[in-house]
Amino acid sequence: MSATGAGPNLALVVVVGVLVGCGVTLLLERSLTRILLGVVLLGNGVNLLILLGGRSGMAPVVGTAPTGDLSDALPQAMVLTAIVITFGLTAFLLAVSYRAWYLTGDDEVPDDLEDRQVRSQAARNEVATADLGGEGPDGDPEQVDPGPARRRRGDGER
Amino acid sequence: MNALVPLPVVVPLLGAALALLLARWPALQRTVSVACLTATLVVAVTLLVQAYRYGPVVVHVGGWPTPVGIVLVADQLAALMLVVSSAVTLCVLLYSIGQGQSETGESAPLTIFHPTYLVLTAGVTNAFLAGDLFNLFVGFEILLAASFVLITLGGTETRIRTGSTYVVVSILSSMLFLTAVGLVYAATGTLNMAQLTQRLDALPADVRLVLQLMLLLAFAIKAAVFPLSAWLPDSYPTAPAPVTAVFAGLLTKVGVYAIIRAETLLFPGGRADRILLVAAGLTMVVGILGAVAQSDMKRLFSFTLVSHIGYMIFGVALGTVAGLSGAIFYVVHHITIQTTLFLVAGLVEERAGSTDLRRLGGLARVAPLLGVLFFVPAMNLAGVPPFSGFLGKLGLLQAGVAAGGPLPGALVAAGTLTSLLTLYVASRVWNIAFWRAPRLATAEPVVRLPALMVGATVALVVLGLALTVVAGPLFDVTGDAAADLRDRRPYVRSVLPWLTP
Q: Which one of A40, A46, A107 would you mutate to disrupt binding with B, by most B Cβ within 10 Å of its Cβ?
């Protein structure tokens, strides 16, 4: 891409690598606050990566420098958008983790209850919901032969 | 006609702003939302007719020439998705209004519901219409941000627990998508999809493969394709019924739509097809086996949702016109049916107090209409003839057989097995919840279900049945769309007239 100007410089590439690496590590944690920090690092790493995709150079204003020396403005515009979006998502995640802490006293992401239940049932070799035909015809008089039979039985009892 | 293209995005967004201002007047707010979505539906139908007759409708936003500015494209696929999605969102909106009116509704929508819902719609339509990758990303972010609010609506403990999973997974997939976008730009110097078709073809095959896999990975998380699907059944069921319904119907399908675009427009005949086929087969089988093990109606439907995503991926991965056509038809069918089933689950919860199969029984006698409303879409989903589910699966399986070879053959077998297991799951729910002696999870006196809720569900059931009736013409449209997608030239020609080979 880069005809003139500096290409992607190594320091920036290393920074992207470190940010993304730390971000992913933090994302693997269970506590939402750490996940949040991971998202922040990861987001910044990715934003820098986008910036690397374009040509670097002078400020992209026509007339201030020869056209060939201008930097690529498009990745910069994209990064601005991406930063705003990352900021919004981070704010929401922060709100969620605060709410989780407010409600439960910690901000760990617990296991799903139903998953645990299904697993324990499987360990005990049980069926999730018994569908054994259940009551049979007698269990539910209305189902097979409605009306008359029941009324007669009722009469007899009286 | 071009002026119509931005409307499906702009109208809901402006409507959202207006609805936010009208937060104090709920009746007015509801009117605004319904009017906006109705207008979107009308525009979408017009666009579909246009796209079918005269080819893709394109608008250059701000009048900038194409590679510089952003472009919105309504080709047949996009327009068809717009029609189905706006019809479904409208029905779900009416349903949620009905739910707000019922006295038992514990999850009564707050004033924030309508604006957020409209923003969600705008995000979905923007993703469908986007003509460049970054705009697609922005569309995804709009709908994700709105969906975050909707899934944690009310902020109860359960919703925060499940919502945080959803939020983190979504953010991660967004980051992957953003990385892929950055890499595509670095490799090609453009993000316009029409221009990308040319520049990507010129890249070395291995670089293309990396870019393709990055994009597919991001989209597959959103579409809940098997190894990346575990987040969905954990996070969807706890949201309010209308929210779950619209998420299940639309959000995963936006991911599928993006996969279709990537696989046809950007990377045709890609080397990832075999991986996709394997993923499709695993998605089908693992998803439906998950559904067999569940004992809660909403979770069960979440697993069938995951499972049936596999059918669409199967069609896309085949890469033939017949496969694509079947996949698009299946997307249309599945949006309608899956949404309907979640709405019915919401009705069951409203009527019986729970969707837990262990606490339900005899609903068919207690609420016969509810029984019919469940039975028809459930059989439709399972693929019982003559419903559209059967036709969609038939189209896909025929395409698989026509493609030949061991892998498509295995996929055809997996598809048939999944269909049968879906039938088993559907009849299991029917046996347990709708037959047996009546047993309700609530001791409260019987409340009539709000007419609007039932009406909206009936409308969607009828829409699902109508898909069966118009399946012939619909298959013409999807076949046409698929042929255009395979050809690529109609799309490129309409966006970049001077670049056409």
A: A46
Between B486 and B449, the more confident residue is: B486
Q: Are residues A137 and A67 in the same domain?
A: no
Give chain A's domain count: 2
Whether A4 is in a domain gets the answer: no
Q: Identify the domain boundary among A91, A110, A129.
A: A110
**Alpha carbon B5 to chain centroid, angstroms:** 20
Q: Is A81 an 8 Å CB contact of chain B?
A: yes
Owner of token pair 């979408």: B44
Percent of chain B with pLDDT over 90: 46
The domain of A73 spans 10-110
Contact B323, B349 (CB under 8 A): no
Contact B139, B257 (CB under 8 A): no
Mean pLDDT of B321-335: 92
Same domain, A68 and A99: yes
Helices (H), B102-132: 113-129
Cβ of B152 within 8 Å of Cβ of A96? The answer is yes
Q: Do A30 and A85 belong together in one domain? A: yes
Q: Is residue A1 part of a domain?
A: no
List chain A residues with pLDDT less than 70.
1-8, 127-158
Q: Do A99 and A153 share a structural domain?
A: no
User: Is the same domain home to A94 and A133?
Assistant: no
Say how many domains are in chain B. 1
Q: Given this model, what pLDDT does residue B326 score?
A: 93
Reduced to 3 states (helix: H, G, I; strand: E, B; else coil), residue B231 is helix
User: What is the average per-residue pLDDT within B264-290?
Assistant: 89
Q: Do A135 and A104 lie in a common domain?
A: no
Instruction: Tell the burial category of B400 from Cβ atoms under 10 Å away from its Cβ (0-12, 13-18, 19+).
Output: buried
Which of the two residues, A154 and B71, has the higher pLDDT score?
A: B71
- Looking at the fold, whether A71 and A95 belong to one and the same domain comes out as yes
CA B482 to chain A, closest CA, distance in angstroms equals 31
B60: enclosing H helix or E strand? strand B57-60
Tell me how crowded residue B48 is: count the other CB atoms within 10 A of its CB.
22
Q: Is B320 helix (H, G, I), strand (E, B) or coil?
A: coil
Distance CA B101, CA B346 (A): 14
> Which burial class, exposed, middle or buried, applies to B196 when counting CB atoms under 10 A from its CB (0-12, 13-18, 19+)?
buried
Same domain as A92, residue A39: yes
**Chain A residues touching residue B441 (CB < 8 angstroms):** none
In whole numbers, what is the pLDDT of chain B averaged over residues?
88
Chain-chain contact of B161 with A100 (C-beta, under 8 angstroms): yes
Q: What integer pLDDT is reported at residue A22 of this predicted model?
A: 94
Angle at A65 between CA A62 and CA A68, to 5 degrees: 90
Q: Which residues form the domain of B307?
A: 2-499
If we measure between CA atoms, which residue out of B439, B245, B442 comes closest to residue B360?
A: B439
Q: How many residues does chain B have?
A: 501
Long-range contacts of residues B55-63, Cβ cutoff 8 Å, at least 24 apart: B55/B490, B55/B494, B56/B490, B56/B491, B56/B494, B56/B495, B57/B1, B57/B2, B57/B4, B57/B5, B57/B494, B58/B2, B58/B5, B58/B131, B58/B494, B58/B495, B59/B2, B59/B3, B59/B5, B59/B6, B61/B6
Report percent pLDDT > 70 for chain B. 96
> Is A2 part of any domain?
no
- Quote the CA–CA distance of B135 and B139 in Å, as a whole number: 6
Q: What's the pLDDT score for residue A154?
A: 43
Kindly report, residue by residue over B353-377, the tens digit of the pLDDT.
Answer: 888 888 887 888 888 888 899 999 9
